[in-house]
Design goal:
This protein is an alpha+beta fold and 146 residues long. Helix content is 14%, strand content 29%.
Length: 146
């Protein structure tokens, strides 16, 4: 069982997530295209921006790409950390993008994805986000398709 497993305590249902941070100067659309090209995935831009209130009265919109997976891959989201009104997460290291994978052990974990993303042009760093810090990502509950 992956140590990056996250059993949500703030959702009505339990979800298992592995969360990967990505440092890249690529645009969200280009990174999604690179992931599709590298992994034969099918990330598609969600019709509505991923929006939430980072501050009391200020909504922030973030690009969100979704892939429902297939027989050998789990459901995944690619979310831009930077939005119209700020960052989803400001701690160190601060990623540019998040890759959220539901039930990653279905596809044998995240190691192949991390290795493949490191080979993508303009991806400087890829890291698994520590399971003990996942409570700092309350926006996970607002992902589409949950």
């Amino acid at each position: 069982m992956s140590q990056k497993r996250f059993k949500s305590h703030f959702l009505e249902f339990e979800y298992n997530f592995d969360v990967v941070g990505i440092h890249s100067i690529n645009t969200p659309h280009y990174l999604a295209w690179c992931l599709n090209d590298t992994f034969s995935s099918n990330f598609q831009l969600h019709v509505h921006s991923f929006a939430l209130n980072l501050l009391e009265e200020t909504a922030s919109e973030h690009a969100e790409f979704y892939w429902e997976g297939d027989e050998t891959h789990s459901e995944m989201w690619l979310v831009s950390n930077r939005g119209s009104a700020g960052l989803l997460y400001t701690g160190k290291p601060t990623p540019d993008f998040w890759l959220i994978i539901r039930d990653a052990d279905i596809m044998g974990g995240t190691a192949d994805w991390i290795r493949g993303m490191k080979a993508i042009t303009n991806v400087q760093m890829v890291f698994e986000f520590p399971a003990e810090q996942l409570e700092k990502l309350p926006w996970l509950q607002q992902l589409s398709h949950l």
